[in-house]
Amino acid sequence: MEVVLQLNYSGLTQLSADFCQYNRHIERLYLKRNKLKTLPKDIRCFCNLIDLYLPANEIHKLPDEIGCLKNLRYLDLSSNFLKSLPASIGQLSNLEKLNLSINNFLSILPNEIGQLQKLLTFEAAYLNLKIFPKQLCDCKSLQKLCLDRNFISFIPKEIVKLKNLQDLSMCGNSLVSLSHNLMKLKNIRDIYVDQNPALFSYPYKLPVTHLGCGRIESEDNCDEFCYMDVEENGQKVKLCLGDDVTSFGHPVLRPIPQLLELCFRVLSNYSSVVLESLKDQLPKELFITLTSQTSLCTVCEGVIFVDGFVVVVIKTDPLVISDDKVMYETVLCCSKSCVETFINDLPSHYRLIYPKLLEIT
Ligand SMILES: [Zn+2]
User: Fold this and answer.
1) Fewest CB atoms within 10 Å of the CB: 17, 52, 170, 322?
2) Cα of 294 from ligand 1 centre, angstroms
3) How far apart, in whole angstroms, are the C-alpha atoms of residue 266 and residue 244?
4) What is the pLDDT of residues 189-208, one digit of tens each?
5) Distance 264 CA to ligand 1 centre (A)
6) Bridging pattern class, strands 303-304 and 295-296
C-alpha cells in the first residue's frame, strides 16, 4: 500500500518544518491549487517521496534541497511562477516525468537537466524559451518531449541523441524548418508542429502528424539558397530549407560533391577506432564535422556531411491543411545519380518542384 497525502485545494500558504518531519514516510504528496510560494529546505525529509504534485500554486523558486528527493519519479510544477530552477534538479536520478508547463517567466533551464537519465516525459509548454534547450538531448531515455507554445525557431542537430524519442510536440512556436536530423530518430512516431506560421517545408516522409502553417513574407535580402523561390499558383513564394540544409551552399549547381565532402564520406567508413585516433591531430571543428554527419541520403542512406543535393517535392493531394496553405517536402541526396533515381521513382501523388528536370540533365 502506498502512503498518500492528499491536500489539494487546501489553502496552504507554506509547509512548516514540523509538517515535513511528521510526514517523512509519505510516498505521494498531492498539493494542487494551494498558495505555496516556495518549498521549505525541510522538503529533504521526504526521502520516500515518489510523486510530488504541485500544479497551480504560486511557486517562484525551489530550494536546492529538492535534489535530495532521490526516489522521486513524478514531479509536476505546472502553472506556477517559476523564474529559474536549481541546478540540483539534475540530482533527481530516478525522475521519469517532469512537468514545467505554464511557467511563463521561465526562459532558461539549467544544464543539469541533462543529467536526468531516467526521464521519459518532459513537458514545458507555455514557457518563455527562445531556443531549444540542447541539454535535453542528453536525457537519453526521453520518449515524449513537449515544447508547445514557446518561441523556438530551430531544432538543434543534437536531437539525434534522443534515440528513444517517440513523440515530439512543438506546436505554436516560431519554427522555420524541421531538421533532416529528425530522420535519424528511428523510434519517432509523431511530430506535432501545428501553428508555426513560418514553417512550410519538412523533410520527406517525416511522420509529421499535425501540420499547420501560414505564409510569412520573407525578406528580399535573405540568402538565396536558404530561402528558395518556388512558384505556387502563379505566385512566387520563398521556401526555407532549414539550417542543416542551408549550410550546404548550392550543391545542385555542381555535378559531383566537393572533394571535402567525398573525403569525409571515405573517412566516415573507417572504424570509430581509426576516427578516434585522428582526434588529436585534426582541428576540433573538423573532427566534430567528421563524426556528426548532417543527414542520410534519402535514396541510398549514405552519409552526407557538408555537401549534398536538395530536391523539393509537393504532394499533389496534400494531406494538408486549410485552403491556401501548402506544405513542401525537402529531400537530401548524396549524389546526382541518387537525385535521378529519386525523381524517376517518385510516387505519382508527388510532384517535383526543384530542381527542374532540365537543370539536372
Ligand atoms: Zn545516395
Assistant:
1) 322
2) 14
3) 21
4) 999 998 888 787 888 888 87
5) 15
6) antiparallel
Q: Could you tell me the sign of the dihedral formed by the alpha carbons of 147, 218, 234, 244, in that order?
A: negative
CA of 307 to the centre of ligand 1 (A): 12
H or E element that contains 5: strand 4-6
Do the Cβ atoms of 287 and 278 come closer than 8 Å?
Answer: yes
Distance from C-alpha of 343 to C-alpha of 347, rounded to nearest angstrom: 9
Give 142 Cα–ligand 1 centroid separation in angstroms.
31
> For residues 329 and 76, which has the higher predicted lDDT (pLDDT)?
76
For residue 304, report the distance from its CA to the centre of ligand 1, in Å: 9
Q: Which residue is it, cell 509537393?
A: 314
* Cα 47 from Cα 33, distance rounded (Å): 23
Residue 83 pLDDT exceeds 80: yes
Question: Start-end ranges of CATH 3.80.10.10 in the chain?
Answer: 4-152
Please give the distance, rounded to the nearest whole angstrom, from the Cα atom of residue 352 to the centre of ligand 1: 18
Residue 67 Cα to ligand 1 midpoint, Å, equals 48
Cβ-based burial of 31 (10 A; exposed 0-12, middle 13-18, buried ≥19): buried
Distance 119 CA to ligand 1 centre (A): 36
Confirm or reject CATH 3.80.10.10 for domain 4-152, answering yes or no.
yes
